[in-house]
Amino acid sequence: MAIGQGRAKYPRFKSYHHRQSIQYPQNVKQVGNCLKFPGKLGTVKARIHRPLDGDIKTVTVSRDPSGKYYASVLMEYESTDVKLSKEGKVIGIDLGIKDFAITYDGEKTSKFGNPKHLAKYEKKLTRKQRIAARKKKGSSGRRKARKIVAKVYERIGNVRQDYLHKLSRKIVDQNQVVVVENLNVKGMVRNHKLAKAISDLSWGTFVNFLSYKCVKEGKLLVEIDRWFPSSKTCSNCHYRIKELPLDVRSWICPSCGTHHDRDGNAAKNIRAEGIRMLSSSGTGEVNASGEEVRPKRGRPSKLRRSSVKLEAPTST
């Protein structure tokens, strides 16, 4: 097409040093432990960690910075309607930095520590990056050193996702309704003092893992608004204090005198708000046990249902 007519632009070429990928929209088949691609590529050995039991539509082959090749397979299945149920335990989750997640299920409060994956590999990563920076630009030695750095990053990412998958699986298996906050992670990382810690936690990925696991098993994820004052509201009498700085980890309610752990109190309020939302939305009764539902505070919230890439099944 002519550029002067405004219908096309100059082509943008991919850099050889960045992520490489190619897509096969059809004619890809599984042959034993191999994938058979059309054209010159032919049959390629693969570690197939999940059964390809659907109709294969599109396969995307990509190479990550560490030099490993992956095939992402898009499959089509026959429609299997999973009946949504709200009968069962409801759990509220408060996500934090000191502790990764604080949960309350109506009976007890549980805390799951911050594993600090990046901090564990920071010294090793710094050493490998220093070695790579000293290599001559464009040399084979620099390419090899950068690949070593990429492998360290890959290890960090794998460990992080493993932790998120296991924790989300545990929570979904033990509860029917999961209530979380809709956090503004993009805005929170603007705080340079906390940006590295927040990015390492991957709250958004964790919520996505909870979401698709709930959808797959007919359970429900409720996402309350980020402006809901979960930490500043007393879970006993609903009194709301004006200010609560981040360094204050516990406080006493001026109205009823109840001593609150900041995160545990937030988890209780998040759970109560989720119950109130479900009751008022007409999607079913989840507070049949007679629990008190507090009045609505803050901005409107929403029920979230989304899907992301599934995790590999665990071997038994």
Describe this structure in words.
The chain is α+β, with helices and mostly antiparallel strands. The chain is built from six helices and 14 strands. The chain has helices at 117-133, 140-174, 185-188, 195-201, 203-216, 262-281; strands at 20-24, 29-31, 34-36, 43-45, 55-63, 69-76, 90-95, 99-104, 109-113, 177-181, 220-224, 250-252, 259-261, 302-304. Strand 8 (99-104) and strand 9 form a beta hairpin. Helix 2 crosses helix 5.
Secondary structure: elements and pairs:
Elements: E1 20-24, E2 29-31, E3 34-36, E4 43-45, E5 55-63, E6 69-76, E7 90-95, E8 99-104, E9 109-113, H1 117-133, H2 140-174, E10 177-181, H3 185-188, H4 195-201, H5 203-216, E11 220-224, E12 250-252, E13 259-261, H6 262-281, E14 302-304
Parallel strand pairs: 7-10, 10-11
Antiparallel strand pairs: 1-5, 2-3, 3-4, 5-6, 7-8, 8-9, 11-14, 12-13
